[in-house]
Amino acid sequence: KTESNQEVANPEHYIKHPLQNRWALWFFKNDKSKTWQANLRLISKFDTVEDFWGYFLPFIKTSSGFSPGLLNNDGIEPMWEDEKNKRGGRWLITLNKQQRRSDLDRFWLETVRF
């Protein structure tokens, strides 16, 4: 408290914690009449722990009803045609409908926490 008896804000409550890289969260619309690139939708970009969880938690909560998600470094589009991703890879997890309802959110969370 200050001399005037006011609460002093703890800097930890408003200082954001930077990530080593800026990231982009995408989803894939899966419209078979469109190209891969036309189906990609950028949800958001973030570079702090707090912003990551702010964008990612709502995504996780809806992912079991959501199209495939992609998490890439900013500036690298999630497609082989991007020169920076030419030698990249992907993790593909195939789930049956029951698993999508029960396990998909947990799989996403465990993957990004890795």
TrEMBL record:
GO molecular function list: RNA 7-methylguanosine cap binding; translation initiation factor activity
Annotated keywords: Cytoplasm, Initiation factor, Protein biosynthesis, RNA-binding, Translation regulation
Pfam family, one: IF4E
GO biological process per UniProt: regulation of translation
Entry annotated with the keyword Membrane: no
Protein name: Eukaryotic translation initiation factor 4E
The family this protein is said to belong to: Belongs to the eukaryotic initiation factor 4E family.
GO CC field: eukaryotic translation initiation factor 4F complex
Record InterPro entries: TIF_eIF4e-like, TIF_eIF_4E
Gene3D superfamilies from the UniProt entry: RNA Cap, Translation Initiation Factor Eif4e (3.30.760.10)
